[in-house]
Each structure stands twice: as structure tokens, then as C-alpha cells.
Specification:
Elements (H helix, E strand, L loop, with lengths): L4 H14 L7 E8 L6 E8 L16 H17 L3 E2 L7 E5 L5 E5 L5 E2 L5 H5 L9 H15 L3 H19 L1
Antiparallel strand pairs: 1-2, 3-6, 4-5
Helix pairs in contact: 2-4, 4-5
């Protein structure tokens, strides 16, 4: 048996914090088992609440260019740290702009992650659901590449292929 979603979420939150990434402060997790059995019935992950909005509709933010570039740099930082969020969608990333105009990001829904990932194609799969529109996915991939010191055209091409493959499966 693998660890419960709650345990994975807690452990992943702790690891993200150790690596210098933001996530709501983990408090713990609980597991409810079937009486007299090792079978898991339910599990619960507890964290502090972080009152930041998520990244849904980021494409229409009045500070779109700065937000896109900041998020691209944040994705580059995740990749450099070997963090692969399997569910890297706009709804699972919280955002906050501080008084100096700098964007900060925090991660939620953490049970599907991997650490120590170095495979570029696998990491680029994080672009599959960052936007509902291809043009914004490609623009974000370009910002990512510039921050990571990579070829923007190559990153945009990879992100486009991944986006198209993912969205073809959904329809």
C-alpha cells in the first residue's frame, strides 16, 4: 500500500517549505481505518488557511505581463529544485502581490508531486493545464525559458505539444 493522500500532502508541504517554496503551513494529517483492518477508509490533511486567490483567470489580471513573467520564473525555480507538480493547474497555485509589487506563489493540493526530477520533458508537463488558452500557455513557457536561461522557442514548442496532447484527451 502507498501512503495516504493526506500523508503525502503533509510530507510534500514540509518538503516544499524546506526547499524555500510557499504553501499554507502544514498542521498534520489524520487517517481513519476500517475497524480491525489496515485498510484506509478516509484521510484528512490539515493546514493553515492562506487567504490568497488562486491563479485562475490570471490571463486577465491587470498586471498580466509582470504576473506571467513572475510565474514563469517561479516555475523555473521549481524545475531547478527538481519539483514536479503533477497537478500544476491554475487552481492549485495561490498568488499574492506584496506592497512592493512583487508576486509570491504558494502551492496547494500537494498529494501528486515528485522531488528530484531532472527529466526536462517530464517537468515541462507542468504546462499542460496552466491556462485554458494555448496562447497564454505558450507565453508563460517563453517567460519560463527566459528565467531559466533556456531557448524560448524550444520551450514554447514543447509547451504547445504538451498542451495540445492534454486537451485532445479531454475532448
Amino acid at each position: 500500500f502507498r501512503k495516504s493522500k493526506a500523508q503525502r500532502s503533509y510530507e510534500h508541504a514540509m518538503r516544499l517549505l524546506q526547499l524555500g517554496f510557499d504553501t499554507p503551513q502544514p498542521m498534520g494529517y489524520a487517517e481513519v481505518r476500517v475497524a480491525g483492518s489496515a485498510l484506509l477508509r478516509r484521510s484528512f490533511y490539515f493546514s493553515a488557511q492562506l487567504p490568497w486567490p488562486n491563479m485562475r483567470f490570471w490571463e486577465s489580471d491587470k498586471d498580466y505581463d509582470h504576473l506571467r513573467d513572475a510565474w514563469g520564473a517561479e516555475i523555473a525555480r521549481l524545475h531547478q529544485a527538481g519539483v514536479w507538480m503533477k497537478d500544476h493547474s491554475a487552481g492549485n497555485i495561490l498568488r499574492h502581490r506584496d506592497d512592493n509589487g512583487h508576486w509570491h506563489f504558494a502551492y496547494v493540493d500537494l498529494n501528486r508531486m515528485a522531488f528530484g526530477v531532472t527529466d526536462e520533458h517530464r517537468l515541462m508537463k507542468m504546462f499542460k493545464s496552466v491556462s485554458t488558452a494555448l496562447e497564454f500557455t505558450v507565453a508563460l513557457a517563453r517567460s519560463y525559458a527566459l528565467a531559466a536561461g533556456k531557448d524560448p522557442d524550444k520551450a514554447a514548442s514543447m509547451a504547445e505539444k504538451i498542451y495540445r496532447r492534454f486537451n485532445r484527451r479531454k475532448h
